[in-house]
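Pasting as-is:
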Amino acid sequence: MLKANSITKYYKGNAVLSGVSFAVGNGDVLGIVGPNGAGKSTLLRIVSGIIDADEGEVLLEGNKLTISAANSWGYLPEERGLYPQMRVLDQLIHFAGLKGMTAADAKKKAIHLLQQLKMEQYSASKAGDLSKGNQQRIQFLTAILHDPALIILDEPFSGLDPIQTDWLNEQIQLFKKQGKKIIYSSHRMESVEALCDRILVLHNGERKAYGTAAELCRQPAGMWQINTTGGNTSWHSLVQIVSVELKDNGHYRTRFSLGNTALPSVVLAVEKSGANLESIKKYKRSLHEVFVQLTKDDAHAE
């Protein structure tokens, strides 16, 4: 188990993280989301032991996690960290050596992973000559080559095409099955919602929300969404309207709560209004909607 307890960090007297706590168990994926400047990368650097928290602590299996425990984790930073003039294979061996692997073991595993990725033809290429997506994949290999128990990924899908994205999704699922602890920071809400067991929403350096996607996206019972075209909105008087979106083509998307009205009565009223009922379903908020709602006062700052 990895635990972060009340992590606080100050820069020039200002708190960029304030009392942030979370836990990641074996085989768990924690997603961290937040606007730019919310403190995500600072939190990941503290968790990885690169910088120290001013208050609070990070524990891995009950022991304080510091830079001296680097062999326990693999860290993929948002910024590119490859040496552009170094050959890919030499680079992988070098980074694995920093994590305690012998050159022989590192070379054997690096070649195997490059073959898995069908990238063995790039082993003698300079990293700076690779595409952005291939650089990202090589940097990912530097983070996991030494088989870490804890994997920290900061915007790992940056620069990847759809095929490369599918590959990385598969790798994360594989690590999850292997019982590894994974911390994953991203702006890709759909990916976070699909991959993560728990989600931490950071807002102005504070823990704004923390829980499963189902918990964060939970809606009050009886919330519905109906799509219609044409007609009028006389049926709105029967229900409690939450929101109405009108598209240029006359398409209405209406969210409402039934209150004391039975659903068949609503459908009948919609038909009597002259509207064409295209679909009606129980409404479930997406993580994107939750994120926007929790951080909306930052929307103009991004």
